[in-house]
Amino acid sequence: MLRAIGLVSGLMIALLLFPLSRVFAAEIKVDAKLNRAQVYLSGAQVFHTTQVRLPTGTSRVVFDGIAGSLNAATLRTTLKGDATFVSMNERRDMPIDSSAPGFKNIKGLQDSITSLNYFIEDKQAEKAVLEEEQKYISGQLNAPRRDSLPLDIERVERTADFIGRRLGALKLNLAAVKRTIAESQRHIRTLQDSIRRLNTGTPRHEVVVTIFTERATTLDLGISYMIDQAGWSPSYDIRVPDIDEGMELDYKALVWQNSGIDWEDIAISVSTRNPGENSNHPVVNPWMIGFAAPRRAEDEFDADDLKGIQTYDMHANVVRAQINQFAFATAPTLNPLGANRVVEFTTTVPASIPTGGEAHMVSLQSHELTPLYEYYAVPKLDPDAFLLARISGWSKYNLLPGNVNVYFRGNFVGTTQLNPFSITDTISVSLGRDRNVVVKRESRINADESSFLGNDIERTFDYTIFIRNTYAQPITLTLEEPIPKAAIEDIEVDLDEDGGGEFHRQKNSLRWRLELGASANVQKNIRYTVTYPGDRQVYGL
């Protein structure tokens, strides 16, 4: 093991050649421009860039104007030029407010922090030298002998004695230096807390990038990091000049951020990607099954029995936990918009988003669509007809669920919801009420008549629905009329007259698809009878 002949002289040469210039660094402050932000549904990644002239040796480039809510673990740097990246860290700078009551105390505390920072730099230089010496000694001990000369036992003993004493001293010195650095850093944090209590100013957040250059040079330098206090949601504007013209769909993003710095004229991208999602692939383990322990009859229940119960015994808690575990294990992971897919857009022009958390509209895309316009009416539920635009092939537009502002004939007619996650390739967007299509539902004479059949009551309901198209062009209208459905066997519902409508069992309704010519009038008659025991009261009619 003792093959370190000539170690003393080699060690001294190594220490003399150790580049101390890498430890003592010039500090250069730059006001780096924020030029891009990638905004997620929750959180954002922001990018700062600058061009800086660096001298020979080690330099510490200090980026000012950094978001206060940054996640230091996500700090990244990009470097273009002839230089070597050394390290990067975050720090806070507390500016002095001269109007603060404790101004003189604040100034003294900041001077103390500056002195401690210089002291820490000296100790870090000392630590680096000690580590380099320890590394060199360890390397010499593990190096193979290259000569076949007999060992000089006396010289080996002297060398071994030196190594033992020197390595021991090195470890003790390193431990002492590390403790001193840690204590100084804790002292700085205490002083900073005191400044924050005394100072009314706003702290500046900085990122320090340490770089080594062999010669003076100019670099393009950038940093990026994640912030939590930002996000976006989709929004749409739909404009329809008239029912015989196309539709304009404006795709927008409501972007907000509360990072502590304003985003001024920057490129913004929005994405449904989740940067915090686990990227590890699934691992298959043996799927174990077995026999369940026998239960008493009074312990038997199913999952539905747990609904609405506020307190459980131990057995119920175990069952509920197993049910929940199965539900979470089998459910797909969806983003908050309901789409298990990634959609990304980049703005075509720079945008400005001030800090403060208020949402600002950013334009993403515009599409000219040719939808199929139809009307829909349920006069029992609402006296107006609604204009619908049916859009085919919507998947190519990367639409997401969101609020829609609807403009018809140049007027704002209201808001609706867009939900493109349908199993069909056609979606319907409500363009609001159109009172130029008149729909009325009236009871006919002797309607809602009641009669007695033995112990039963028989009630008859008779309606006429009138539809009028006041437009000078034909329209298509779907008319729907709900028919009551008996919830128990003792109630009977008989449809006596359907007016030519198609009966839909799923909704228990009559439906007509009407092609109405210009200025056309149509009416539909319906009649149904409800029979139930005379000693019972029926709800819902």
Q: Which helices and strands appear, and what pairs or packs with what?
A:
Blueprint: H1 7-17, E1 26-30, E2 33-40, E3 44-54, E4 57-66, E5 70-80, E6 84-93, H2 103-142, H3 153-198, E7 204-213, E8 217-227, E9 230-240, E10 247-257, E11 263-271, H4 314-330, E12 344-346, E13 351-353, E14 360-369, E15 372-377, E16 384-392, E17 402-408, E18 411-418, E19 426-443, E20 449-453, E21 456-469, E22 475-482, E23 492-497, E24 502-504, E25 509-516, E26 521-533
Parallel strand pairs: 1-4, 2-11, 9-17, 15-22
Antiparallel strand pairs: 2-3, 3-8, 4-7, 5-8, 6-7, 9-10, 10-14, 11-12, 11-13, 15-16, 16-19, 17-18, 19-21, 20-21, 21-26, 22-25, 23-26, 24-25
Helix pairs in contact: 1-2, 2-3
Question: Can you give a write-up of this model?
Answer:
The protein has 541 residues and is of the alpha+beta class. The chain has four domains: 7-30 and 95-202; 230-274 and 339-433, no CATH class; 297-330, no CATH class; 444-533, no CATH class. Helices cover 21% and strands 42% of the residues. The protein has helices at 7-17, 103-142, 153-198, 314-330; strands at residues 26-30, 33-40, 44-54, 57-66, 70-80, 84-93, 204-213, 217-227, 230-240, 247-257, 263-271, 344-346, 351-353, 360-369, 372-377, 384-392, 402-408, 411-418, 426-443, 449-453, 456-469, 475-482, 492-497, 502-504, 509-516, 521-533. The strands form four sheets. Strands 15, 16, 19, 20, 21, 22, 23, 24, 25 and 26 form a ten-stranded mixed sheet that branches. Strands 2, 3, 5, 8, 11, 12 and 13 form a seven-stranded mixed sheet that branches. A hairpin with a 6-residue loop joins strand 9 (230-240) and strand 10. Helix 2 packs antiparallel against helix 3 (153-198). The longest helix is centred in the N-terminal third of the chain and has 46 residues, at 153-198. The protein is elongated and about 125 Å long. The N and C termini lie far apart (99 Å). Residues 1-24 and 297-334 have low confidence and may be disordered.
